[in-house]
Structure formats: C-alpha cells, structure tokens
Request: fold
Amino acid sequence: MRAVVIHAPKDLRIDSFPDTPPAAGQVRVRIANGGICGSDLHYYHHGGFGTVRIQHPMALGHEISGIVAAVGEGVTDVTEGTRVAVNPSLPCGHCRYCREGLRNQCLDMRFLGSAMRNPHVHGGFREYITVDASQAVPISTSLSLAEAAMAEPLSVCLHAAHQAGPLLGKRVLVTGCGPICALMVVVARYGGAAEIVVTDVADAPLAVATKIGASRVVNVARDAGALDGYKADKGSFDVLFEASGNQAALRSALDVLRPGGIIVQVGIGGEMTLPLNTVVAKELQIRGTFRFDREFELAVRLMGEGLLDVKPLISASLPFDSAVEAFELATDRARSMKVQLTFA
Reply:
C-alpha cells in the first residue's frame, strides 16, 4: 500500500508501505479521511518539535477515520464494514499511571504518528492501518467520515475543558485561533459559558470563531488595547484557554483574568517566563492539559448525536497523493482551518 511519509524537513513523500494483517484482538481499517495536525506541520517544516526529532522515515497522521476491512481472532465489538474513528492512543494499561486512571500519562504509550519513541510509531496517513480493536470506535450513521476524523482534536479540547472545571455561566478567554482554539469555542459554548472572547493576530481564523459561537473576536495585532476594558476591578475572565503557545499572549491575558481565575495551557510553543508576582497576588491557577483519554469516545458520541458541529472547521479536503500541496495549504492560516487528506 501507499503512505504519506516524512523523511526530513520539507521532504514529504508518497512511499510504498507494509500492509500488516490483523492479529488476534486487532482490526485492519481502510482509511478514508485524515486531518493534518499542528504536530504534523512541525514534522513537515522542522523535522519535529522541542527535543522530539524524526530519526528515520515515519508515516504521519493521527486524526483518522475509515472502514473496518478485516478483524482478527476474538474481535466482537466491530465487524467488517463498520465505520470507525481511530483513536491514536494505545496506553499499556499496566504502568503506575494507567493503573491510577491517568492513561494519557502512560509510561509506554504508543501514539500514532509520533517520534517520541524510537523506533517511531508510524501514523495513519496510509491506505490501511492495523490497530488494536479498542482503538476502532464505531460512529453514528449520521456522522460523515470527515467529521469522524475530527474526533481526536475534539478530544483534546474536551480534556482541556475537563481540566478547567465547570464552564456554566463563566466568562472565557481563548487566545490563539487555530483549529484547537476553534474547537475550544465549540466545547465552551456546549459547556454553557456565558461569554467567549477569542484573540488572534489574523482575521481569517477569527471569522471562523465568530461563525461557531464566539461572543467577540479581537485581532490583537491590529488593536493591542482591545482587551483593556476587561482589566477593570482586577480582571473579568474566569477561565483562560491559552492555545497559541505564545508567551506574549499568556502574559497579556493575566491582566484580564479575575482573582482565582484558571489558566489552562493548551498550546505548546517552548519555555516561557511568567510574572509570578501577578500569579501569586491574584491567586491564579495554572493547569496543564495533555492529549486525552476517555474523551475520545465522548467526542464521537457528541458529534454523532448532533450536539457538537465540527463541519464548519473542515476547510479543505485533498487526495493524499497531493500531500505536499495539502500541507502547504494547512500552513497558510489565511486560507485554511482544518485541512484533511482523503484516501478513498
């Protein structure tokens, strides 16, 4: 079969790739759709992120959906022909964190399309993939396979919302309007937030945020003082979802958070320096969020029941043999939000 394989920065190829039949407890999925994630773009442009670097050619992709093509011995939850979203996480189930219920912190995690371990775990941008049966989550008949491929990034946002706690009636600020930020708007609106303000440095993604439920959007590159009104009485926002990974965005947001406000750091952009005096004086709470766990099945269910609509975020779909064009399009935030590859 064929796969989208990164060899080095800017060296993305369509390669021949081994096709593994399912063993006991596994399923083989014919891939239909795959979303290009920010981490995929880091591999494409830079060969990795932080200390993580590709050491050998690796198939990319972890936002995937498809149709079960074959099942291994003992598999009963899905059958051939079942339409599924593929969960890219496969925790070991045995380490101390898995036993404590923190499976996203697994010490032996196998995450599709990740160079964090060596040999790397190949991703799902290929015509077929064989995975553990638990990773193939059946989807509603009303849900398209394109929407199903959004389950992974939606899961990330559902987990971030869980880290923040109840959002009902809260005033929420989201900084950095990429696909994850846009999905944070969808999740915060579903969670009952009273007000959702979104900031970015570009107009195109902010227009999408308005379409999907933001109360107000602010281009901080054009109007740096637009949030000044929220500084009154020590701040206005209850919760910040910082999705840009930019130190300046986080630093400026501290001034508009009310005392006791909660910061959920969603975006990763490198090390940051923070004014701890402000954090201490306002008793702000900084919380991390990393991937997801049970939220994947929840994401599939919420989309399948029509409770969350991700369709406005899918800005383009290109055949996988045009992967380089698709990755360049996904890089251009003025023209795209979520770009998907199609395999069928």
